[in-house]
Design goal:
Strand order of the largest sheet: 3-2-1-4-5-6
Order of helices and strands: EHHHHHEHEHEHEE
Number of helices: 8
Oligomer: single chain
Structural class: alpha/beta
Length: about 230
């Protein structure tokens, strides 16, 4: 892949364990969301995303408690809501900054990202989590602050991850032909969409899941990738 000039990576199941998000971040946000909303009613950004959540749910008028209940239900459903992701990111920041947790990275990821960056590859993130949440996750890792390695971040405001148009938008935004961008993910449907947009693809299949032919080059870890 000597013509690759940029690596675009997913997060959950790719750089980081899904369990960290599911077992640490989601429960923390669920537990702290009611108090966070109640104590940040005068913060314009919080109000904006509460309004966006109500609009997404088709609610014209609702009490703060009803919106909180809606968001809690969305967390339980793992709904891919941009408003929910934004609010979760604000709550997660408090947990990171207070030292409640650091984000999980698979053992080889940080070293490999640093090596690719040193080689001159441009690194980007594309995740269903909000951009602020992505920056927090890479900023508070077990291996230090990795955010200086990345040129930019993309979330569902760009488009959904299983839609080809999203990857075309990203290629345009970073100013490279799609075939010079390598997309890494554990989800076949995302890889299919990226390939349809013209990107190169590699599927991460983390142990104990067995490597199988899913239509994309499959590897167990970042050390097996040679952009």
């Amino acid at each position: 892949m000597s013509d690759i000039r940029a690596v675009l990576t997913d997060i959950e199941g790719t750089t980081s364990s899904i369990d960290f998000v599911k077992d640490v971040l989601f429960p923390y946000a669920r537990q702290h969301l009611p108090a966070y909303v109640e104590t940040h009613t005068d913060v314009a950004e919080v109000q904006h995303w509460l309004h966006e959540a109500a609009k997404e749910a088709g609610i014209v008028e609702a009490t703060r408690g009803e919106i909180i209940d809606l968001l809690i239900r969305w967390i339980d459903e793992d709904r891919k809501s941009t408003a929910l992701k934004a609010l979760q990111g604000m709550i997660w920041r408090e947990g990171y900054e207070s030292g409640v947790y650091t984000s999980h990275m698979y053992p080889e990821v940080a070293a490999r990202l640093r090596a690719w960056h040193a080689q001159g590859l441009r690194l980007y993130v594309y995740s269903s989590g909000s951009v602020p949440a992505q920056k927090l996750l890479f900023g508070f890792t077990e291996y230090g602050d990795l955010t200086p390695l990345f040129s930019d971040y993309f979330d569902t405001q760009t488009g959904h991850k299983r839609e080809t148009a999203s990857y075309r938008k990203i290629a345009e935004a970073i100013g490279l032909p799609p075939d010079q961008v390598l997309f890494l993910s554990d989800i076949r449907e995302e890889l299919d969409a990226a390939r349809e947009a013209g990107m190169r693809t590699v599927q991460l299949v983390r142990p104990p899941t067995a490597l199988v032919d899913a239509g994309h080059p499959a590897v167990a870890d970042f050390d097996a990738i040679a952009p």
